[in-house]
Write a structure and sequence with these properties.
40% helix; 353 residues; Endonuclease, Chain A; 17 strands
């Protein structure tokens, strides 16, 4: 696949998305975890309303937990024929946690069987300066993403559905679309991630905003370091979720001790989710390295070994590293016992929930 463009800054991403929406002539399908009713959300709503007025098929799928809005915000869009659905609306239930904990974390925009966007970004002004990783694709891959969107759109309020149908890996030229749904048994992203790490001969670079790894991942990274692979972990100096920052500190120290080079991105929130192996094999998309993405959420990622993509991803990682500082292991080692206790408690709570 050659007709693509990586976009790392939300200001540019939103500008490109809105431009493509304005040019749409058949349909616009938008799926996102967070859609805020701020000046960015208002711009998207305005353009989507115009397209619905023109008679286009406009559909929006928002996660009910991630998005604080309701249908009143989209009343004009709906009156013009647009369809807005909130994925798995929060409800009181005897199975409260199980019922409400399965969230749709995918980020996808598909337009006219021609253009597709996939990546890490939500629709929100507060994220305007975050460091992200998104891809704009032009060509015949769009109908594939259209089908994926419509599958999720149809099951927006269903607890029981045929999971295998919704996680079938889809190959398109030299990339593969990897999907996950809430499941302990079926974990496509986890499986592919471990496969790539085991394949590494020279280097592994992982970039993630939230890092709560499972023991298997720690073991595989340790084994990679032992066989001479340079392993680099890129995380934010400070993320947007304080409790994750506290819980992840435990793992940063452990990985440093086994030889992983940890860099903390300083300028603003690092929110991109990606991994590259030997500057050749890559995986990126919506999934974080934490229990929620692994077990509880609907996610979508791209995997492949496209040379042009791999080269551009390498440049992306170089930029991240340039603006990052080394993990301060000395400071980590001296942290008070009470900090370690809270790290343990939060880590357990995150994994239980």
């Amino acid at each position: 696949m050659d007709n693509f463009k990586f976009i790392y800054k939300n200001r540019e991403l939103y500008k490109e998305m809105l431009h493509d929406i304005r040019k749409a002539s058949k349909y616009v399908y938008l799926e996102t975890y967070i859609f805020d009713g701020d000046k960015i959300g208002d711009k998207f709503r305005q353009e989507l309303e115009k397209k619905a007025q023109e008679g286009l098929d406009v559909r929006i799928l928002l996660d009910d937990y991630g998005t604080s809005l309701n249908k009143k915000y989209f009343k004009n869009l709906i009156s013009y024929g647009g369809k807005v659905r909130f994925f798995r609306k929060l409800k009181l239930s005897l199975k409260l946690i199980q019922r409400n904990n399965h969230r749709n974390h995918r980020k996808l925009l598909v337009i006219d069987d021609k253009i597709s966007y996939l990546g890490s970004s939500n629709i929100s002004h507060r994220t305007i300066n975050w460091w992200e990783l998104n891809i704009r694709m032009k060509g015949r891959i769009a109908p594939i993403f259209k089908k994926i969107f419509l599958q999720n759109f149809r099951i927006y309020n269903k607890i029981v559905f045929r999971k295998k149908k919704h996680v079938e890996n889809i190959k398109y030229k030299d990339i593969e679309i990897i999907r996950d749904v809430p499941s302990i048994r079926i974990r496509r992203f986890r499986k592919k991630k471990i496969e790539l790490i085991k394949k590494a001969q020279n280097s592994i670079i992982i970039e993630t905003p939230y890092f709560i790894p499972e023991p298997l991942l720690v073991r595989k990274l340790k084994a990679a370091v032992k066989r001479g692979v340079k392993v680099t972990l890129l995380v934010p100096k400070k993320s947007d979720v304080k409790i994750i920052d506290i819980a992840s500190k435990k793992y940063l120290g452990i990985l440093h001790k086994i030889g992983v080079d940890i860099k903390c991105y300083k300028p603003n929130v690092l929110h991109s989710k990606a991994m590259i192996i030997d500057s050749q094999y890559f995986i990126f998309g919506s999934a974080n390295i934490d229990p929620r993405s692994s077990i509880l959420q609907f996610e979508i990622n791209l995997v492949g070994e496209n040379k042009k993509m791999a080269h551009q991803l390498d440049e992306h990682f170089k930029h991240t590293i340039f603006y990052a500082e080394d993990f301060n292991f000395s400071q980590w080692s001296k942290r008070p016992r009470v900090h370690r206790f809270f790290e343990y408690l939060l880590d357990r709570a995150i994994k239980l929930l």
